[in-house]
Amino acid sequence: MPEAIDIQVLNELEPVVEKELNRHLSMAKEWFPHEYVPWGKGRDYAFLGGEDWVPEDSKVSDAAREALLVNLLTEDNLPGYHSAISRIMGREGAWGTWVNRWTAEENRHGIVIRDFLTVTRAVDPVVLEKARMQHMEIGYEPDHGEKVLHGVAYVSFQELATRVSHRNTGRASEDPLCEQMMQRVAADENLHMIFYRNVLGASFEVAPNAAMRAVADVVKGFQMPGYTIDGFLRKSVAIANAGIYDLRLHHDEVLMPVLRKWGVFEIEGLDGEGEKAREELSEFMTALDEAATKFEERREARRARIAARG
């Protein structure tokens, strides 16, 4: 059950949630997954007398194929995310309306990506289905339990991280149709990020010290929700080496823009605990920036060695 501070925050943020929900509904564009799938490129698999998937069927790069697989498996776990978010935020009022709307929009992402990958044979559908079963059987539980501010802080960053990953995956595919589809999905994720970011921003006025602690904890321990995917570490390394999502992007395009929007390093009036959380956040961001630079240097050196070998 949410703690007392979380229940208080839920109640006080209800008007903000309603306002952000109405803003979202006014900006969200209706779209249909079937329109982004090149159905004419499809053909039967062996079960229906056709041919099963072979690696030569895929027209996207190895890194893009790994990213597409990870992105789709992440979207597949939507039932777990809905369950967790509804437990934290509730099923009533503006919060409940938002959670249901968010779930409906996210569900389209899994639909369109799966249909596209299956029709175009971009990935092995047997491998995909086995991975989906395994991943969903593990389920999903938020790292910070049922803490409202931690939950909202997490999705503020996670939605933006997903937008960046989807967008860059589309580019890396070198397939104009795939890129168009992933841009459409990324546009949804951006609107979701804005909703959560604005709600969490308002929490700095309601409970600034608790909000700062939530942000510090989430940033320091951030993991994408797909980290339980089998082989996730290997896949994430390939994705990072391809520049689809790496430490530099995480620092520069995900964490820092949101932190600046909240003005976390300028907020005044924090108590001792709030200041401690902010110091931890600042130290972590400095260390992450340094780690990102080292990763970039190693990646460039590796690319240079590969180029030298022809």
From TrEMBL:
<dbReference type="InterPro" id="IPR009078">
    <property type="entry name" value="Ferritin-like_SF"/>
</dbReference>
<keyword id="KW-0479">Metal-binding</keyword>
<dbReference type="Pfam" id="PF03405">
    <property type="entry name" value="FA_desaturase_2"/>
</dbReference>
<keyword id="KW-0444">Lipid biosynthesis</keyword>
<dbReference type="InterPro" id="IPR012348">
    <property type="entry name" value="RNR-like"/>
</dbReference>
<feature type="binding site">
    <location>
        <position position="159"/>
    </location>
    <ligand>
        <name>Fe cation 2</name>
    </ligand>
</feature>
<dbReference type="InterPro" id="IPR005067">
    <property type="entry name" value="Fatty_acid_desaturase-2"/>
</dbReference>
<dbReference type="GO" id="GO:0005829">
    <property type="term" value="C:cytosol"/>
</dbReference>
<feature type="binding site">
    <location>
        <position position="189"/>
    </location>
    <ligand>
        <name>Fe cation 1</name>
    </ligand>
</feature>
<keyword id="KW-0443">Lipid metabolism</keyword>
<comment type="subunit">
    <text>Homodimer.</text>
</comment>
<keyword id="KW-0560">Oxidoreductase</keyword>
<keyword id="KW-0408">Iron</keyword>
<dbReference type="GO" id="GO:0046872">
    <property type="term" value="F:metal ion binding"/>
</dbReference>
<feature type="binding site">
    <location>
        <position position="106"/>
    </location>
    <ligand>
        <name>Fe cation 2</name>
    </ligand>
</feature>
<keyword id="KW-0276">Fatty acid metabolism</keyword>
<feature type="binding site">
    <location>
        <position position="75"/>
    </location>
    <ligand>
        <name>Fe cation 1</name>
    </ligand>
</feature>
<comment type="similarity">
    <text>Belongs to the fatty acid desaturase type 2 family.</text>
</comment>
<dbReference type="GO" id="GO:0045300">
    <property type="term" value="F:stearoyl-[ACP] desaturase activity"/>
</dbReference>
<feature type="binding site">
    <location>
        <position position="109"/>
    </location>
    <ligand>
        <name>Fe cation 1</name>
    </ligand>
</feature>
<feature type="binding site">
    <location>
        <position position="106"/>
    </location>
    <ligand>
        <name>Fe cation 1</name>
    </ligand>
</feature>
<feature type="binding site">
    <location>
        <position position="189"/>
    </location>
    <ligand>
        <name>Fe cation 2</name>
    </ligand>
</feature>
<dbReference type="GO" id="GO:0006633">
    <property type="term" value="P:fatty acid biosynthetic process"/>
</dbReference>
<keyword id="KW-0275">Fatty acid biosynthesis</keyword>
<feature type="binding site">
    <location>
        <position position="192"/>
    </location>
    <ligand>
        <name>Fe cation 2</name>
    </ligand>
</feature>
<protein>
    <submittedName>
        <fullName>Acyl-[acyl-carrier-protein] desaturase</fullName>
    </submittedName>
</protein>
